[in-house]
Specification:
With about 350 residues, this protein is of the alpha/beta class. About 30% of the residues lie in helices and about 25% in strands. Strands 3, 4, 5, 8, 9, 16 and 17 form a 7-stranded mixed beta sheet that branches. A 6-stranded parallel beta sheet has the order 12-11-10-13-14-15, with helices on both faces. The longest helix is centred in the middle third of the chain and has 13 residues, at about 165-175. The chain starts with a strand and ends with a strand. The structure holds zinc ion (ZN) (2 copies). One zinc ion binds near residues 39, 41, 57, 164 and 165.
């Protein structure tokens, strides 16, 4: 079918172009997009992917067709989209699809497992299936494992980003840090992921929630969504300042920055039995941690996509959002699909925490 995509251009911006999309195969679903969030990962990949690649991985829309082998998803269903996974490896079979053995091949290779792409431009197959989606498009053909069915009450303009950044930040708290009512938690980096960690820690009832960033406006937002303390990391030793708030150290921390010095601080500031969730992606470098820091019971663990099963966590977060306990709508600014470059620029400048394109 004929669709419109926002393709990566030679200048590494986006341009709306006509494209062709295959019919869904037996295990696939055709979705008409209603909204799609812009994530830092899209902007990063746009700098090195080939011309005409189609990014976008925070989509939500309405099912238009289902493959012959698909059950549990029907035409007309409202759905959110998430990453895809193989469904048969050990991690998938134990409800840990974000650690799927085929994760990179299925989500970043630009094609299905057999190397084909459902997307083409001018008759030439193009890089698609990005994080299972390529949702910078009016329509997407996705594997059923990317589909999260939503209630009819869901506002697709709000729920679109739930499948990536918000799920990541929330899942890091719920599945790894697991704060209780007396817990002290710090979140490093107050972007979309970090702020959703702050909200989730607040929803979980954590007593002390410290947000750390270098942007005064983001720290102010963090305070509005549940942080009890905010620290500008440029204003002196961050571990000492956290200890001034929580003398025993943190029960949990989340790093969303991907910086080695920040991960080190996030681990060093822990209580002896504390857990640090490493979520951010940065340049490959070593993190130096003093040996006894680990020996004394601390845990450091990497977390992909919040260690979430999207079909479980996204509906839960939606319920929380509708009840006012996960106020991510405060972080969003909506743009028309055609204004994708303006939305990307606002994201890069830091003017907007979560830009969402609407169709
Ligand atoms: Zn993302
Ligand atoms: Zn798998």
């Amino acid at each position: 079918m004929d669709i419109t995509v926002a393709a990566v251009t030679e200048e590494k911006t986006f341009e709306l172009r006509p494209a062709q999309l295959e019919e869904p195969r037996a295990d696939e679903v055709l979705v008409r997009l209603s909204a799609v969030g812009i994530c830092a990962t899209d902007l990063h990949f746009s700098t090195f992917l080939p011309t005409n690649a189609v990014l976008g991985h925070e989509g939500a829309g309405v099912v238009e067709a289902v493959g012959a082998g698909v059950s549990g998803v029907e035409v007309g269903d409202q759905v959110a989209l998430a990453f895809t996974s193989c469904g048969v490896c050990k991690q998938c079979r134990t409800a840990s699809p974000s650690y799927c053995a085929q994760f990179d091949a299925l989500n970043f290779a630009g094609a299905r497992a057999d190397g084909s792409s459902a997307l083409s431009i001018d008759g030439q197959p193009v890089y698609g299936h990005f994080l299972g989606q390529s949702a910078f498009a009016t329509h997407a053909v996705v594997n059923v494992r990317s589909i999260v069915t939503l209630p009819d009450t869901a506002d697709l303009r709000t729920v679109a980003p739930f499948g990536c950044g918000f799920m990541t930040g929330a899942g890091a708290i719920l599945h790894t840090v697991k704060p209780g009512p007396e817990s002290a938690v710090a979140v490093f980096g107050a972007g979309a992921v970090g702020l959703s960690s702050v909200m989730t820690a607040a929803a979980a009832g954590a007593q002390t929630i410290i947000a750390v960033d270098v942007s005064p406006s983001r720290l102010q937002t963090a305070q509005e969504v549940g942080a009890t303390h905010v620290l500008d990391s440029r204003e002196g030793d961050i571990v000492e300042r956290i200890r001034a708030i929580v003398p025993d150290g943190l029960d949990g921390s989340v790093d969303t920055t991907g910086r080695a010095d920040v991960v080190k601080a996030a681990v060093t500031a822990l209580h002896t039995r504390g857990t640090c969730a490493v979520v951010g992606v940065g340049p490959s470098e070593n993190v130096e941690i003093e040996w006894r820091t680990l020996l004394n019971g601390r845990t450091v663990t990497g977390v992909i996509s919040g260690s979430a099963v999207p079909q479980v966590l996204v509906p839960q977060l939606l319920e929380w959002q509708q009840a006012g306990r996960f106020p991510v709508e405060k972080l969003m600014a909506h743009y028309a699909f055609a204004d994708i470059n303006e939305a990307a620029a606002a994201t890069k400048r830091g003017d907007v925490v979560k830009a969402v394109l609407t169709f």
